TrEMBL record:
Coiled coil: none annotated. The keyword Iron-sulfur does not apply. The keyword Transmembrane applies. CDD domains: MFS_MdtG_SLC18_like. The lineage of its organism: Bacteria, Bacillati, Actinomycetota, Actinomycetes, Mycobacteriales. This is MFS transporter. Signal peptide: none annotated. It is a multi-pass membrane protein. GO terms for molecular function: transmembrane transporter activity. GO terms for cellular component: plasma membrane. It is found in: Cell membrane. Keywords: Cell membrane, Membrane, Transmembrane, Transmembrane helix, Transport. PANTHER family: INTEGRAL MEMBRANE TRANSPORT PROTEIN, RESISTANCE PROTEIN MDTM, PUTATIVE-RELATED-RELATED. InterPro entries: MFS (IPR011701), MFS_dom (IPR020846), MFS_trans_sf (IPR036259), MFS_Transporters (IPR050171), Sugar_transporter_CS (IPR005829).
Length: 417
């Protein structure tokens, strides 16, 4: 018999922990390839143009962005669990394609499928956790979710770098992905329960803000209205979408560019893997603190400070030419991202009504994950025209400008009790 829904982190601890584990496996699918693919492009496929090398990141970002939208729409319409399962089915061919790829086009196609997998599964686990915990602990819930996902990115990047150095760039690093998929399908199919009933329960008891904010967003909205509010009109939602896009622009640029930049100093593959893992590692661990902190102090100042910290970190990385400077920059970049990432998702949960929350999360994540594509394109073009260091300077300037824009336009969305 199905369980009657009850809101709260403690009341849903078992299901919440299970979804944290599933999201760690989602992150691991990205981490298995981040250290390896830029090196594979140069050593096995003989690619030299940065713009062309980064096509796989652009393909990943565009398809993930589109999948986010459909994840939100379908999870509101059909339920969360079916979307989660379908997302994992799209991952099944990815490690095999990367192992067997005879040309770079295979790598790009594998990342199209990976983007669909990431959009459907990550968006759905986000929505499910928001469903379970209710309004009081959204920041904490998102911190735990994103910590698991990006902590797994870091660990898998480190493991993939070690496996590549010990056993070669293929196939060993991608065997991690095959294991992740098998475990995730088992957990999602047999143990994860549907959470849409929790959202309906919250909608019944939903309390309007005392200051009148969000009154125009109560009740059912069309998909077009939700997209317009989240993208352009509603100040907090649209500011979150902008900050999310730039945040992932930095991640997309770093994904393709950092391994190549670090290789210019003659570092080993394992050293490059360690440097790259520092960024998502600090990002993942930091969210255990920043998500809960936003529940106590509010969202806006954490977001503006985080974008500013990212700008400083990128400037340090751009100005450095060795392991020490890059390591400090990577740690700072992870810290700045940790301030922003769970807090932006909590903003969406604060403002979006429970009946259309899944779609709002989907639209926000469309913009956020288009940042991968923008980062790959801008980073590739800037690196080809001006060099690797200059491309990082460009990202630093964009991050600083975003911090200013958010500080001016976003209002505080959370009223701590």
């Amino acid at each position: 018999m199905p369980h009657d829904p009850v809101l709260g982190l403690r009341q849903n601890a078992a299901q919440f922990a299970l979804l944290v584990a599933v999201n760690a496996l989602v992150g691991g699918m990205v981490g298995q390839q981040q250290t390896v693919l830029p090196l594979l492009a140069e050593s096995e496929f003989g690619l030299t143009g940065y713009t062309y090398i980064f096509t796989y990141i652009a393909a990943f970002g565009i398809t993930k962005a589109a999948a986010n939208y459909f994840a939100g729409t379908f999870s509101d319409r059909y339920g969360r669990k079916p979307v989660l399962l379908v997302g994992w089915l799209f991952a099944v061919p990815v490690p095999v394609m990367l192992i067997m790829a005879p040309s770079w086009e295979w790598v790009v196609l594998a990342n199209v499928l990976l983007g669909i997998n990431q959009g459907l599964t990550w968006s759905t686990t986000v929505v499910m956790k928001i469903d379970l915990v209710g309004p009081a602990n959204r920041g904490l819930a998102m911190g735990l979710n994103e910590a698991a996902g990006y902590g797994a990115v870091a660990v898998s990047s480190l493991l993939a770098g070690y496996l590549a150095e010990q056993h070669g760039l293929r196939p060993a690093p991608f065997l991690l992905g095959l294991a992740y998929i098998a475990i995730a399908l088992m957990l999602s199919g047999f143990f994860v329960r549907e959470t849409r009933g929790h959202a309906h329960l919250e909608a019944q008891d939903h309390v309007r803000r005392s200051d009148g904010m969000h009154d125009h967003l109560h009740g059912e909205l069309t998909n077009r209205q939700i997209a317009v509010q989240t993208s352009l009109k509603e100040p907090a939602l649209s500011s979150a979408s902008l900050a999310g896009l730039v945040n992932n622009l930095n991640f997309g640029l770093s994904w393709g560019l950092f391994p190549l930049l670090f290789a210019t100093a003659g570092l080993t593959i394992s050293q490059i893997g360690l440097l790259f893992a520092l960024y998502p590692g600090v990002w993942g661990a930091g969210q255990l603190v920043t998500g809960a902190l936003s529940d106590r102090v509010g969202r806006k100042h954490l977001i503006t400070a985080g974008m500013g910290t990212q700008a400083v970190a990128l400037a340090l990385i751009a100005a450095s030419s060795g392991f020490a400077g890059w390591a400090v920059g990577a740690v700072l970049l992870g810290a700045g991202t940790a301030m922003v990432y769970p807090t932006l998702l909590a903003v969406i949960g604060d403002v979006a009504h429970p009946v259309w929350r899944g779609r709002a999360v989907g639209v926000y994540r469309v913009w956020r994950d288009l940042g991968y594509a923008f980062g790959a394109i801008i980073g590739g073009v800037a690196a080809d025209l001006m060099g690797l260091h200059a491309a990082v300077w460009v990202a630093a300037v964009v991050s600083a400008a975003t911090a200013v824009a958010v500080s001016v336009r976003m209002y505080e969305t959370h009223q701590p009790v």
